[in-house]
Design brief:
alpha+beta, two-stranded antiparallel sheet, 2 helices, 4 strands, binds iron/sulfur cluster
Length: about 70
């Protein structure tokens, strides 16, 4: 199961360094997540770190729905 990034990405680059498995990189127009690497941070963090550090709502869950953090 992997998250994905939408065109709402503002290319801040913050999430790239926070991903524990190196799944995030700059794409053609905005940052992208490698679905073969992203494991939704299981075993590393309680919640996906890219979403935690991201300044805008630019992430989708594995079903293509906006990802919301659990509090
Ligand atoms: S959910 Fe975790 S593993 Fe997946 S891209 Fe975001 S930081 Fe990386
Ligand atoms: S944190 Fe969000 S806005 Fe910043 S590069 Fe990552 S996906 Fe794009």
């Amino acid at each position: 199961m992997a998250l994905s990034i939408t065109e709402a990405c503002i290319n801040c680059g913050i999430c790239e360094d926070e991903c524990p498995v190196g799944a995030i990189s700059m794409g053609d127009e905005y940052f992208v997540i490698d679905p073969n690497k992203c494991n939704e941070c299981v075993g590393y963090f309680d919640q996906p770190q890219c979403v935690v550090v991201g300044p805008v709502d630019c992430f989708l869950d594995a079903n293509g729905h906006a990802f919301h953090l659990q509090y």
